């Protein structure tokens, strides 16, 4: 693996306990993420759990009940903790298991920790209630809260030795993060509307007669909500197609992890496309058995081989 230390050396009891805590958080709270990281070897699985646990903490502050000023203070305190990780000043006796696990991960893998600063910046955008006029505006937000996580994850996965085009792996990981985030935005239209948030670009809303937003999860009279959803689905599919170029650059189990996570979201996108109104009735999700099937398909290499063939044909 290029640039990756697998991290299988002996681990102290406090560090192991910290990772166990992060894996428990991931297993309990990561509805889709956990299916992918189960496919990784121990060292990478622990590292991804540490990354998830820290990211979850940031998200929970942004989505929690505190006043905006208090959220900003908590987020800046979390940024200060990240700075301690960056300076390697968190030791195994620290009382914060997420900090201990993330610090150990940063020692074992080449994590671009600035990506977690970007995540905090993105959640601060939520706290400020920012809206987005254009897709280019929304991309800035998506890159902060999802593209950065893709690039951080790549620091753990690494790229397979001699993988062609590996110099663009970070770009593809970022794009795949955008695809997942746009799918999230479509899935959560009702929940976000209930919280007074609108993520879809104002230009797109106006184009389909939805400029007045969604009151009580109901599109304005005369709106072409189906057209809006199909438009965003096509955009997400294009992002997936570009981001999937990453898969052949990864080793088998890292590729399986990414294929599983992305595959679950692509199936969510399929469901949303078939029934756009479903996102207004509740959260669209996949049953556990279907997620397990997608994970097994990723581990078998079927998705990776399919994507590789697609791009070989395109380049021919």
Rg over alpha carbons? 20 Å
State the major sheet: none
Can you count the helices? Answer: 15
CATH fourth-tier homologous superfamily of the largest domain: Farnesyl Diphosphate Synthase
Q: N- to C-terminal separation? A: 28 Å
Pairing-aware structural class of the strands and helices? mainly alpha
Portion in beta strands: under 5%
Q: How many domains comprise the coordinates?
A: 2
- State the order of secondary-structure elements, H for helix, E for strand: HHHHHHHHHHHHHHH
| Poorly predicted regions | 1-8
State the CATH class of the largest domain: Mainly Alpha
Per DSSP E runs of 2 or more residues, the count of β-strands stands at: 0
Helix content: 55-70%
Keywords:
15 helices; disordered N terminus; 316 residues; Farnesyl Diphosphate Synthase
Outline:
By secondary structure, this protein is an all-alpha fold. It has 15 helices and no strands.
SSE map:
Blueprint: H1 13-29, H2 33-37, H3 42-63, H4 68-86, H5 97-108, H6 114-127, H7 135-157, H8 169-187, H9 189-194, H10 202-207, H11 225-243, H12 252-274, H13 278-281, H14 288-300, H15 302-315
Helix pairs in contact: 1-3, 1-5, 3-5, 3-6, 3-7, 4-5, 4-6, 6-7, 7-8, 8-11, 8-12, 11-12, 12-14
Descriptive notes:
- With 316 residues, the chain is mainly α.
- The protein folds into two domains: 11-109, Farnesyl Diphosphate Synthase; 131-316, Orthogonal Bundle (Farnesyl Diphosphate Synthase).
- Helix content is 68%, strand content 0%.
- The chain has 15 helices and no strands.
- It has helices spanning 13-29, 33-37, 42-63, 68-86, 97-108, 114-127, 135-157, 169-187, 189-194, 202-207, 225-243, 252-274, 278-281, 288-300, 302-315.
- The longest helix is centred in the middle third of the chain and has 23 residues, at 135-157.
- The radius of gyration is 20 Å and the shape is globular.
- The model is unreliable at 1-8 (pLDDT under 50).
């Amino acid at each position: 693996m290029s640039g990756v230390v697998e991290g299988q050396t002996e681990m102290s009891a406090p560090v192991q306990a910290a990772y166990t805590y992060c894996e428990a958080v991931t297993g309990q709270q990561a509805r889709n993420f956990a299916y992918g990281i189960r496919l990784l070897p121990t060292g990478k699985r622990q590292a991804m759990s540490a990354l998830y646990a820290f990211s979850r903490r940031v998200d929970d502050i942004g989505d929690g009940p505190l006043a905006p000023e208090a959220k900003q203070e908590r987020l800046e305190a979390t940024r200060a903790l990240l700075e301690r990780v960056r300076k390697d000043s968190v030791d195994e006796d620290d009382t914060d298991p997420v900090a201990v696990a993330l610090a150990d991960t940063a020692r074992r893998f080449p994590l671009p920790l600035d990506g977690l600063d970007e995540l905090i910046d993105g959640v601060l955008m939520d706290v400020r209630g920012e809206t987005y006029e254009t897709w280019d505006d929304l991309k800035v937000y998506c890159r902060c809260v999802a593209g950065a996580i893709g690039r951080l994850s790549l620091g753990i996965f690494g790229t397979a030795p001699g993988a062609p085009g590996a110099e663009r792996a970070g770009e593809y990981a970022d794009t795949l993060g955008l695809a997942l985030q746009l799918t999230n935005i479509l899935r959560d239209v009702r929940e976000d509307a209930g919280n007074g948030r609108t993520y879809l670009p104002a230009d797109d809303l106006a184009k389909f007669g939805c400029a007045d937003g969604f009151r009580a999860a109901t599109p304005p009279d005369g709106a072409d909500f189906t057209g809006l959803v199909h438009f965003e689905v096509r955009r997400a599919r294009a992002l997936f197609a570009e981001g999937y170029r990453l898969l052949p650059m990864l080793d088998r189990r890292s590729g399986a992890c990414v294929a599983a996570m992305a595959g679950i979201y692509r199936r969510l996108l399929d469901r949303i496309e078939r029934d756009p109104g479903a996102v207004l009735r509740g959260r669209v999700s996949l049953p556990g058995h279907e997620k397990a099937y997608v994970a097994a398909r990723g581990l078998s290499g079927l998705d990776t081989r399919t994507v590789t063939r697609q791009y070989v044909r395109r380049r021919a």
